[in-house]
């Protein structure tokens, strides 16, 4: 299993940050490869989401489910089809990280644990002569960069303006 863990500081309280994390409908704003999100459920644990992704000529719908919510601290999720993957958003108070002029701060963590070799080759329509192994080898190195960009755009959405975001990479695939 591979794992990505990133964190950054957001100049808001956990209670102000958490609604952005649990609003999956906002996620296309954060990722250039996420086209749309369809929701089945009330947004709580057990809610399922279909996340329509595209990259170059490849399209894929990730089927996910929120497995646990402990507001305003944790939102856990898992993919329900095609790839063995799970993760969570975590928010911790970090008032000491607030710079002068900001009332408070929180540290936001994004964690994804996945097995890139568990992907179901039948789930993705691949052109002739393109193998799933080739596709995984091209996408995997880009995952960390994509995760970083998602977190930076999330911070801009929460705070209302874009700023230089210091992302700590706690763990990433080799």
UniProtKB/TrEMBL annotation:
Domain of life: Archaea
InterPro entries registered for this protein in UniProt: Polyketide_cyclase/dehydratase, START-like_dom_sf
Gene3D superfamilies xrefs: 3.30.530.20
Pfam entry (one): Polyketide_cyc2
Protein name (database record): SRPBCC family protein
Organism: Saliphagus infecundisoli
Organism classification: Archaea, Methanobacteriati, Methanobacteriota, Stenosarchaea group, Halobacteria
């Amino acid at each position: 299993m591979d794992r990505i863990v990133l964190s950054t500081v957001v100049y808001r309280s956990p209670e102000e940050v958490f609604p952005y994390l649990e609003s999956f409908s906002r996620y296309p704003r954060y990722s250039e490869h996420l086209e749309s999100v369809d929701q089945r459920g009330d947004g709580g644990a057990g809610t399922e989401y279909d996340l329509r992704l595209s990259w170059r000529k490849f399209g894929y719908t990730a089927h996910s489910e929120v497995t646990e919510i402990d507001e305003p601290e944790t939102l856990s999720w898992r993919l329900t089809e095609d790839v063995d993957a799970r993760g969570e958003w975590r928010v911790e108070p970090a008032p000491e990280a607030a710079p002068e002029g900001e009332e408070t701060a929180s540290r936001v963590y994004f964690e994804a644990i996945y097995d890139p070799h568990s992907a179901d080759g039948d789930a993705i329509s691949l052109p002739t002569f393109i193998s799933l192994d080739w596709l995984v080898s091209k996408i995997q190195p880009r995952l960390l960069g994509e995760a970083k960009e998602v977190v930076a755009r999330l911070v801009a959405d929460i705070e209302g303006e874009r700023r230089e975001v210091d992302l700590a990479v706690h763990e990433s695939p080799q």
